[in-house]
Amino acid sequence: MVKENILITGATGFLGSHLALSFASANLYIARRMHSESGDWRIASLTNVKTIDLDQLRKGTLRTTLNGESIPVFDCVYHLATSGNQYGMYETNNLVDGTISLTMDIVSFCHWNKSKKLIIAGSSAEYGDHGKIKLSESIKLKPDSIYGASKVSAVLMGLTFAKFLEVNVNVARFFTVYGPADKPYNVIPSMIQAIYTDVPFDLTQGEQIRDFIYIDDVIEALHQMKISNLQPGQIINIGTGKGNSLREVGKYLLDFSKANPSVFRWGVRPYRDNESMEMICDVKKSSTLLKWKAQTSIEDGLRQTYYWYEKLFGGILCSKV
């Protein structure tokens, strides 16, 4: 059986590392900046992965891997790298370059490479606040964060450029992905760390409702997008279609850990300005076009996440403080 050639940008990040590990038996390539070692621990178990210089790719000078091997035609390119996050502070030039311009460069590379398919990572942050209705791919985009606006720009410009260059591209628009090896400053890892260390964690009232989707389900959706015969330019929501409040997430974590509920200090922090209080995915398109739906319940996903972090923190801290 001929192995597929797969290229991933952002392969040392939370989502990208899980995807890379799922392609351990493929001819796997990752594109990265050479001066960055952030997140290497996430893919340390991979062997035979081939690395290409992202800066050379962007300049159009890429001809070989770092080991001098020829660059193959890729069966699928997953562009997951981005700059910033929905709630962080931003340096505008870096955000534009690392999200919008980078996407354009990836599209250009796929045209040069004659890649068979390109899948770009979108974000539910593109939607903004639409009240209590489920968010479908056809709804008006009105992001309420700089990050969301940058993702809107990257997706729209990427799709337009890809159409001009005849690159077969689709967009996976992710809702709130969680699971093992997430960014440590994200809310669920922060809550678990607070439980494990008994250090109180300040939160809002926790009434925000989000469509939390477990990482394993997201990876399966990305595989389905690769093999599905989608029309170029399709944008597909990747979520569960169900919502849970942050308070509910906290309750599940407390149930697993038997921790003192006072470790979560609800209501200490204010809500963000213009914060969307409910964001739930409309899953009709993913169900119809991908024949896929999320399989992991919020309780099971949080349980698996909690025990992964408990093992991690146990190794770091040796014993609970």
Distance between the termini: 52 Å
State the domain count.
Answer: 2
Q: What would you call the shape? A: globular
Query: What proportion of the residues is helical, as a percent range?
Result: 25-40%
Class per helix and strand makeup: alpha/beta
SS strand fraction = 15-25%
In DSSP terms, counting alpha (H) and pi (I) runs of 4 or more, how many helices?
Answer: 9
Describe the largest sheet: 7 strands, parallel
Q: Identify the CATH class of the largest domain.
A: Alpha Beta
Quaternary structure state of the chains depicted: single chain
Task: Summarize this structure briefly.
This protein has 2 domains: 5-177 and 212-238, NAD(P)-binding Rossmann-like Domain (Rossmann fold, 3-Layer(aba) Sandwich); 180-211 and 242-279 and 296-317, UDP-galactose 4-epimerase, domain 1, CATH 3.90.25.
Structure explained in plain terms:
Strands 3-2-1-4-5-6-11 form a 7-stranded parallel sheet, with helices on both faces. Strands 12-9-14 form a 3-stranded mixed sheet. Strands 7-10 form a two-stranded parallel sheet. It has 2 domains: 5-177 and 212-238, 3-Layer(aba) Sandwich (Rossmann fold), CATH 3.40.50.720; 180-211 and 242-279 and 296-317, UDP-galactose 4-epimerase, domain 1. The protein has 9 helices and 14 strands. Helix 1 (14-22) crosses helix 6 (215-227), helix 5 packs across helix 9 (298-317) and helix 7 (246-257) crosses helix 9. Strand 4 (76-79), helix 3 (92-113) and strand 5 (118-123) form a beta-alpha-beta unit. It has 321 residues and is an alpha/beta fold. The N and C termini lie far apart (52 Å).
